[in-house]
């Protein structure tokens, strides 16, 4: 328990990165994507599946580079600037095509490869790399990037509140086959905790979005648990307990961020579609 | 041989669809995507992997619907039209997220599922569904959609010319472990044939793009062979000879279109990036 608390302090630099937000957080997301993909791929060693990490690195770095170029392209008002071409969605298509193509070509050493090697590479890039990337996109959204805090608050808030609610009141098992200790009481406590914490955040730091903070607190809390369970399913099938031991007592990056991978996209899409696009109709 | 020729006639309706181009071809690509994904998934039965076809159908239909909405959005000049919001690349991100999320949630019946079930679903949607979708996008490009012919000409041209060059002059094996009959002589013949046929097409039907037709004829011919070999790798690992027997003597849709899946994106990206965006700099 003492190791756990002390190791928790290692998370402090991450807090600084979230406070700085913007490009610092964008770069932080890139680093976390790469580390998490590494842990994800390593987990498949037990199943004798060998995904290709260099392809994942190239693909994830390209994704963040393209995002940067698009950011610059959209904010460049000079109509003749070459960077303008990066405002097109074609580059996202090209990224998907390049990523999948590289993974398929990886199979060409047919005797050394299994189909799973390519499929895990594809899955890892999209699940770990792309899901995390949406947090980076959120960090670059002017006026709305304060909502990045909700990604963290809902993920960790749900986790902690569910733990205490489960320990004190837990009776009915939630999904014993995936995660035997989880209970319905814990899940409900987690959702309530997440909504309350998100509401408090809205009240003090983003009053104009208070209602939206409560809605996000509810939605993200639910997907947060799915994120946690998804990681459990992978680990169970891989036959491992933790993805890594980077943070003693906490496991690897991916053990800590399994829920964040799911709350990230939800907050991002809520911000873009509900909060930003809604302005079109008003 | 007679069956093969007669069955070839079944391909005639496809020619009509390519001639009509535009939305008809767009719809045709959707149908072919869905059929090809079905065959791809069915091939995994032999390996006792059960991908989820309904998820693939929903995902692929959503991709085409979003493409349609974005087409309308970009061409709607009225700034206050609700359809305008679909011009954002966010919807493509949402599509990726939704697709991967659905496949991961499919694993939650943990006892009935293997990790491979989800990973094959993801791979199939991106490899078969998305690659084919780029042809649909190309079909909607005004002034450039005549280049759809090059997708067909390079894929089938390479295949046929490589076959005859290989039969008459073939000596040096290309990749005996993947496809034992293919030779370097065949590959070179295929590339030459593709360049010549693409050049002839340019000369008669798209004179303003003649040089580009020759370049596409060369590039697409090479990826065409990779497309063919990729399908061979999958089939070899699955332990099947053909993906299906929809067209007697020709195998399934995916056996016929394995190269088209690769030439499609190449012609599309060439058209958008080299031909369309290049105008920005001029």
Could you outline the blueprint of secondary structure elements for this entry?
2 copies of one chain form a homodimer.
Chain A: H1 2-8, H2 12-20, H3 22-43, H4 53-75, H5 90-105, H6 115-139, H7 148-169, E1 173-175, E2 179-183, H8 184-205, H9 210-238, H10 253-257, H11 260-276, H12 278-281
Antiparallel strand pairs in A: 1-2
Amount of helix of chain A: over 70%
Shape of chain A: globular
Instruction: Name the helix and strand elements of chain A from N-terminus to C-terminus, one letter apiece.
Output: HHHHHHHEEHHHHH
For the terminal residues of chain A, how far apart are their CA atoms? 52 Å
Query: What oligomeric state do these chains adopt?
Result: homodimer
The average pLDDT score of chain A comes to 91
Short recap of the structure:
The structure is a homodimer of 282-residue chains. By secondary structure, the first copy, chain A, is mainly alpha-helical.
What does this entry look like structurally?
- The structure is a homodimer of 282-residue chains.
- Chain A is mainly alpha-helical and 282 residues long.
- Helix content of chain A is 71%, strand content 3%.
- The first copy, chain A, is built from twelve helices and two strands, in the order H-H-H-H-H-H-H-E-E-H-H-H-H-H.
- The first copy, chain A, has helices spanning 2-8, 12-20, 22-43, 53-75, 90-105, 115-139, 148-169, 184-205, 210-238, 253-257, 260-276, 278-281; strands at residues 173-175, 179-183.
- A two-stranded antiparallel sheet of chain A has the order 1-2.
- In chain A, a hairpin with a 3-residue loop joins strand 1 and strand 2.
- Chain A is globular, with a radius of gyration of 20 Å.
- Chain A starts with a helix and ends with a helix.
- The interface between A and B is large, with 55 and 55 residues.
């Amino acid at each position: 328990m003492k190791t756990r608390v002390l190791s928790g302090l290692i998370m402090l630099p991450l807090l600084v990165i979230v406070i700085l937000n913007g490009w610092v957080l964008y770069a932080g997301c890139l680093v976390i994507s790469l580390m998490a993909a590494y842990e994800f791929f390593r987990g498949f060693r037990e199943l004798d599946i060998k995904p290709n990490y260099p392809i994942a690195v190239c693909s994830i770095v390209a994704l963040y580079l393209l995002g940067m170029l698009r950011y610059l392209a959209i904010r460049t008002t000079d109509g003749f600037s070459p960077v303008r071409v990066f405002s097109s969605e074609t580059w996202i298509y090209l990224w998907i095509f390049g990523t999948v193509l590289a993974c398929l070509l990886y199979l060409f050493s047919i005797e050394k490869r299994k189909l799973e090697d390519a499929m895990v590479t594809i899955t890892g890039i999209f699940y770990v790399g792309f899901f995390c990337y949406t947090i980076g996109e959120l960090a670059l959204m002017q006026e709305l990037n304060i909502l990045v805090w909700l990604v963290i608050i809902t993920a960790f808030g749900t986790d902690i509140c569910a733990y205490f609610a489960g320990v004190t009141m837990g009776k009915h098992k939630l999904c014993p086959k995936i995660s035997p200790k989880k209970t319905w009481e814990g899940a409900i406590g987690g959702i309530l905790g997440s909504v309350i914490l998100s509401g408090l955040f809205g009240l003090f730091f983003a009053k104009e979005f208070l209602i939206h903070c409560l809605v996000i607190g509810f939605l993200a809390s639910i997907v947060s648990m799915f994120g946690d369970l998804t990681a459990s399913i992978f680990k169970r099938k891989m036959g491992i307990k933790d993805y890594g031991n980077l943070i003693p007592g906490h496991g690897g990056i991916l053990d800590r961020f399994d829920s964040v991978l799911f709350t990230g996209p939800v907050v991002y899409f809520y911000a873009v579609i509900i909060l930003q696009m809604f302005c079109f109709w008003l």
